[in-house]
Amino acid sequence: MNFNSKAFTFFVCLLIAAFFWLLSALSKVYTAQVVFPVKYAHPPAGKIIANRLPDSIKVDIRASGFTLLELRWKKKPVLQIDISDSKSGAHNTGRLSIQSIAEKIALQMGQDVHITRALPDSFVFNYNKKASKLVPVKLNTELSFAGQNQLSDSLQALPAQVEVSGEQHLIDAITFVETKKLVLKNISANMEVESELLKPSATGVDISPRTVKVKVPVSEFTEGTLELPLEAIHLPQGYYIKTFPDKVTVKFRVSLSNYDKINPSMFRAVIDCDKAGEGAASRLKVELTEFPEGLKGLSVSPEKVEFILRK
Amino acid sequence: MLKGGLTGGIGSGKSLAAEIFRQLGIPVYNADEEASRIREKDKTVKEKIQAAFGTLDRKALAGIVFSDPSKLKELNTIIHPAVKKHFEDWVLKQQGKPYVLKEAAILFESGSDEGLDFVIALTAPEELRIERVMKRDGMSREEVQARMKNQLPEEERNKRSGHILNNNEEQLLLPQVLKLHEKLKGK
Q: Do A19 and A104 share a domain, yes or no?
């Protein structure tokens, strides 16, 4: 056996020995300090926690080397603190010592874990009455349409109102809840999309539900043109008015489904004689006082007319 | 009885001015409408167009004449004498009126000003005319400008007209027409 073979055998034996030493070492119980994130659950019905609570606890634990190694390398579990385990105190307070729930918490850390000390060693909960109210949902959207398609009606949030709950003074300051920006491109048909609501910035405020459905009513639009007679309003008794021109053209975009329903009798184009300067030459503004709902890009031409007002 | 012309570039407000004159009791002959009617109805004119261009289709004719100025001139030499004759016949029926007007977009370009006693031109800034036509006819800026190119420049038209009416949104058109009407009535 030459030197190289001897060295190889030596190193293999060394590795096997090191492996068994590691197994033996990790099987032993050690004490270590670990920081765990925490969350709080089950506050008393109709109440909210008014004081700020720690979002992590520092715990001295006793556990096998394997468990500690796992806690070190794997993502630590978020420990759930069950507020219903707390003892009620005076003036709307509750107190929960870690010692009283040590076993429950230790189970969330691992099978063979024992808590020896925790910092903080207890939690104090100050309760406030939970207030709630309904607020409207504000839609934040960026829409673009394919071809001649356009919105045929207003966007609709379902539900239109959501419940916000939390401390009274925080709830009082909230007047609406906005959705996350909803970007929809090349829309060519009716859509119904789920959108998440933005949580109000104040801590301890909850929204229910957390999402709303956004209804996007879409229709294909076409351009329509109609000629309308001009009507004079507030014409003084015994006076006669002649406008130039005496007809105006109204242009609009209308959904294809409604195109055939639009006719001149649905419009009223007027000039207000009260706005005519006494004997002075001027132009009168044409106003559309009646027109069907759902039209877009409504315009009248000419916008002003010249006139002769005579007794 | 005096015979006048009423002209102006596209979007200058010719139709509005013509309407005011009509309301004042002045007969207005719409030469563009009549030319279109004669081209479609007059048997002799139709035969001449068919012989010269091989078609009576309005779109096909437009395609031919707008791409070749000499063809446009040829078409005008067929239609305008017929329009002129029709106008003369029409004038004879307007007895008792102080004057009559012939409304035409291309009054000078077509030679329709021949035999008229005076010409009234409507004028407005080019940008305003473009905006008016775009809004009124739903045309693009380029389409309006292409049509303007086929018409006499505004300055040239104004120079050849005896009376100018400004329809520029700053001045009212109605008082200008009334003033001119009084002047023409007195002639």
A: yes
